[in-house]
C-alpha cells in the first residue's frame, strides 16, 4: 500500500512539552495540531505509553505533527528508531500503521500512528494499566526512557 507523506499522530513523550519533543521534533515541524485517535486505548509503559486498538470506542488525545517537507524522511527515520520499529521485524514493540485521526479544528486526516505490536498488546490487555481518559499529559511522574 502506498500512503505518501502522512502526518504523525503523537500521544506520549513526543508531544509538545514532553521529554522527546525537543530532541526529535522541535524546529522540524510545519504544524502541530491537537487531535484525537478514536477506537484506541492508552496504557502505561515504563516511562512511556502504548496505544492499542479498541473496537469498544476508546480514544487517545495527542497532536497531529506535520514534519517540514525537507525533514520528512529524517523525522520518520528518527521516530522509527525511537520506537524501535523495523518494518516486518517480529520483535517490534510498536508497529507504525495508518489510522484516521480527528484534528481539533474538525474533519478527519489519515496519519501514521505507533501502536503496540501484537505480543505487547496481548500483555497489556491482560495485565496493563490503562491511562484514564486516554491523555498521557494527565499523568504525572512518568520519567524513564521515552518512547511514543
Automatic annotation (TrEMBL):
Q: Where is the Gamma-glutamylcyclotransferase AIG2-like domain?
A: 8-137
Q: Name one Pfam family in it.
A: GGACT
| CDD domains linked | GGCT_like
Which SUPFAM superfamilies does this UniProt record tie to the protein? Answer: Gamma-glutamyl cyclotransferase-like
Q: Show the InterPro entries listed in the entry.
A: AIG2-like_dom (IPR009288), GGCT-like (IPR013024), GGCT-like_sf (IPR036568)
Gene3D superfamilies associated with the record: Gamma-glutamyl cyclotransferase-like
Q: Which domain of life is it from?
A: Bacteria
Q: What is this protein called?
A: Gamma-glutamylcyclotransferase
| UniProt organism field | Streptantibioticus ferralitis
